[in-house]
Amino acid sequence: MLNWYALYTKPRKEQKVAQQLEQLGFTIYLPLKTEIRQWSDRKKKVISPMFSSYVFIQIDESKRQEVFIIDGVLNYVFWLGKPAVIRDEEMTVMRREIDQPNSDIFVTTIQPGEKIELQEGLFKGQQATVEYISNQKTHLFLPSLGIKLVISSPQPPPKEGE
Predict the structure, then answer these.
(1) What is the pLDDT of residues 22-53, one digit of tens each?
(2) pTM of the model
(3) Which residues make beta-bridge pairs with 59?
(4) What are the two backbone dihedrals, phi and then psi, of residue 108, each rounded to the nearest 5 degrees?
(5) 3-state helix, strand, coil in the chain (%, to 5)
(6) Pair 77, 54: CB distance under 8 Å
(7) How does pLDDT run across 56-94, given as a tens digit for each residue?
(8) In whole angstroms, how large is the CA radius of gyration of the chain?
(9) How many helices and strands in the chain, by DSSP H and E?
(10) Per-residue DSSP letters for 10-49?
């Protein structure tokens, strides 16, 4: 059975690793972003990975060791002592949100310590605990994934007469 995994790579080797994995016949996903970088003498449009040092791969568990022949692959991302399997539904949601982002944002008042379910975005449907809110940022902990998430808190609309 083919499962999705996250591979951890050497810094700035994500695109080379992805290209070589594809040449070996593996299905990979490497979301990219385009940004303008400023140097002292010029500006340049740069394409870089959305997740630094990570490449997503769909691979049969019996073939997992084959990826280590590629220079730049360091390891799989582990969860509870085993390579973390990413469910197909989670990959589908991530791909949809990255490839066609939804700009609609639902705003509500939340308090630290409150448990919430994320309604939109990449982690839609995940349970999270609000750790704290500071400087227009909300810090969340997603226990099912073992990660912390920092999101920008939207600015309230200006009051009339301001």
Answers:
(1) 999 999 999 988 888 888 898 889 888 988 99
(2) 0.62
(3) 3
(4) -145, 165
(5) 20, 40, 40
(6) yes
(7) 999 999 999 999 999 999 999 998 999 999 999 889 888
(8) 19
(9) 2, 13
(10) -TT-HHHHHHHHHHTT-EEE--EEEEEEE-SS-EEEEEEE
